[in-house]
Structure formats: structure tokens, C-alpha cells
Amino acid sequence: MDWWHVEPGPFAQPERSDAQYGAVEGFTGGIEIPELLGKGKSPEQQRQERREAEEKAAAEKAATEAKAAEEAKAKDQAKAEAGAKKRGALRRVLLGPGKAGGEPAAGGGVVKWLAGLGPVLLVAVGLLVAGAGLGNFILIAFGWVIAYYGTYRRSPAEAKWAALGVPGLVAAGAVVWLWGRSDGKWGEPIPKDGWQDVLTDTWPYVVRGAAIASVLFLLWRARRKG
Question: Helices in the chain by DSSP H: which ranges?
Fold first, then answer.
């Protein structure tokens, strides 16, 4: 019998007409390989793969968000540390070495500042504050004189700053302000025939501001030394 004979022999297996691709004449049995026959994945496998892909994407997204949160936290912490350093440096400048730690000063804050001035400078501060508040320039002048001579023995440079340097800076600021107004750079422009009125209105405030600036300078120096 030839190998292609299609009639069933005595040992032939019955044909399977319900096979995936039907019966093939002359061939029976064999091994079916889904990958070779083009058989797709089952619905359960597809659902499982989708779940795994979704879980992987969610895990990657959570990791990315956690990393971004950590980076943002690190940036905020760095900014806070930089701000704390700047504030500490400013406190050291204003309060002096050893007084920027935030500990309460023994003897009670402002009282200790005033005690650090001494009786003579306390009188000077009182005269300057009273003169600035009342607009009395005689009191202000006496305050500057007392501040100068009361500070000169401890520090001539400090005396000059208290009575001359700080008021001079305030006056220079007023001059710059008026110059800017005259050139129309800021503020209300000054008319050509209005200088007398402007100076008359401005100089009392300049003197009073200079007196307050001298008081602040004296208190600052007393705080640093206290």
C-alpha cells in the first residue's frame, strides 16, 4: 500500500473531523503547537497580562511621585536652611557676636539696652525723642551735643556717627529725594519757583527724622555692647 493511500487499513485510527483545522487525508494524530498553528492567548491570560501591566504602571507612577516629593522636600529644606543662615547673619550684624542665638537676655530686653547707654546718653536719647515728637529743634540740638560728648570718651568714631554721621546720611537722603523730584525721576515735580516752599516744608521733617535715626543708632550700639 502506498503511503498516500487514503483508505483505512486494519490498524488505522479513526479520522478526527472535529480537529481545529478539520481532517487531513492520510495523516492522523500528531502534536498541536498553538504558537505554530496561530492559536492566540486565552482571555484569562490576556486579563492577567493587562492587570500586570496596570500594576507595573501604577508602581512606576507612585515611584516617580515619591521621588518628586522627596526632591521638593529637599529643595524646601535647603531654602529654609539658607533663610535661617541669612537671618542668623542679620541678627549677628544687628545684635553683635554671641547674641544671635535667640536666648532671652538677662535683665529684660529693652531695660538692659537702656542700662547699657548710661545716664548721660539716656538724657541725650530723651531729648532727641522729645524734640522729634514736639518738633522742638532746640531739644534736638541739645540731644546731639550731649550724645557727642557722652560717647566721645568711649569711642570718638561712635560719637561722630551719633551726632554727625547719621544725621548727615538722613540729610543726604533728603537732598537726593529733592533732586529726583526736580528732575522728574520720582515724586511730584518741583516747579521752578517752588523751591522755597518745598525746602520750608521739608527740612523740619528731615531734622526730626535725623534725631530718630540718632536714637536708633545709640540703642543699637548699646545693644551690641550690652
Answer: 34-37, 43-95, 109-134, 137-152, 156-160, 166-182, 195-225
pLDDT digits (tens, 9 = 90+) for 127-139: 999 999 998 999 9
Considering all CA atoms of the chain, what is the largest pairwise distance in Å, rounded to the nearest integer?
Answer: 143
Confidence of residue 116 (pLDDT cuts 50, 70, 90): low
* Cβ-based neighbours of 166, under 8 Å, separated by 6 or more: 210, 213, 214, 217
Residue 42, Ramachandran bin (φ over 0: left; ψ between -120 and 50: alpha; else beta) = beta
In whole angstroms, give the CA distance from residue 166 to residue 54.
71
* CA–CA distance, 96 with 36 (Å, rounded to integer): 86
> Helix/strand/coil (H, E, C) string of 13-46?
CCCCCCCCCCCECCECCCCCCHHHHCCCCCHHHH
From 157, 155, 162, select the one nearest 219 (Cα to Cα). Answer: 162
Residue 225 clears pLDDT 70, i.e. is over it: no
Q: Is the pTM of this model over 0.85?
A: no
- Reduce the DSSP state of residue 12 to 3 states and report it: coil
All three cell numbers of 168, joined, read 548727615
Alpha-carbon span 160 to 139, nearest angstrom? 19
Q: Which residue has the cell 532727641?
A: 128
Q: What's the CA gap between 210 and 170, in Å, rounded?
A: 6
